[in-house]
Every structure is written in C-alpha cells, then in structure tokens.
Amino acid sequence: LYTVSVTSGPCKVISDGHVYVVTGIEDLEKAGIHVYPNPANTYIQIDFDVEINQIWLFDIQVAVVLKRSVGINERMIKLNVSNLPRGVYTVQMIAEGRIYYKKQLID
C-alpha cells in the first residue's frame, strides 16, 4: 500500500492508498523472479534478480503456512515444503513495491 503525504505548516494531506498486484507468469519472468519446481514435493526454489522483502506460502484456505524474510543480498531462497500436505498453495512475494502471486502445487 502506497500513500503520499504532504505537510504545509499545520495542514497535512494524505492521498488514497494504492496497491500494485501482479499475477501473471509473464510478469514474474519480466521481474526476474523464477519459482520452481511445480509441482514440488520437498522444496520450492525461488531465484530472483530484484529485491524481495518477504515471501509467504498460503494454503487453499488462505492460511499462512510459511513466512520468510529475505536478506538484502540474497538472490535465491529454498522453502522446505516436505512436511506440507498435498494440495494447491499460493506463493506471495513483495518485490520493489509490487505484490507477486504464483499458484504452486505440493505433491
């Protein structure tokens, strides 16, 4: 969520919030983000050329099953999914002010 705040003396104005959501695989690839293998059974690997702040893995009921902060110099993350039940999950990443989603199968 992005807002703009302008202060002049005792007056302050805050703009409406804006969220940028990117969902397509093409958008992930253009951003330099690669999530694989799909389906996965032991790990999900995420390679990226951009600065990612957080990675979440949600189950089908939108419950967070994994959350990972990403270090400033990291360019690859492996998420251990070997203990998760089979099903459809969603990987969510925040990178450079945008939210990226990818459907992920755990087998």
DSSP helix count?
Answer: 1
H and E order:
EEEHEEEEEEE
- How much is the radius of gyration in Å? 17 Å
Mean pLDDT: 85
| Major sheet size, sense and barrel closure | 5 strands, mixed
Molecular structure report:
It contains one helix and ten strands. The chain is mainly beta. The strands form three sheets. The chain has a five-stranded mixed sheet. The longest helix has 6 residues. The radius of gyration is 17 Å and the shape is elongated. The mean pLDDT is 85.
Descriptors for this entry?
107 residues, mainly beta, 5-stranded mixed β-sheet, 3-stranded antiparallel β-sheet, 10 strands, 52% strand
Task: Compile the SSE list and pairings.
Blueprint: E1 5-8, E2 11-14, E3 21-22, H1 25-30, E4 33-36, E5 43-48, E6 52-58, E7 64-69, E8 76-80, E9 87-95, E10 98-106
Parallel strand pairs: 3-10
Antiparallel strand pairs: 1-2, 4-5, 5-8, 6-7, 6-9, 9-10
Summary of the model, kept short:
This protein is mostly beta strands. It is built from one helix and ten strands.
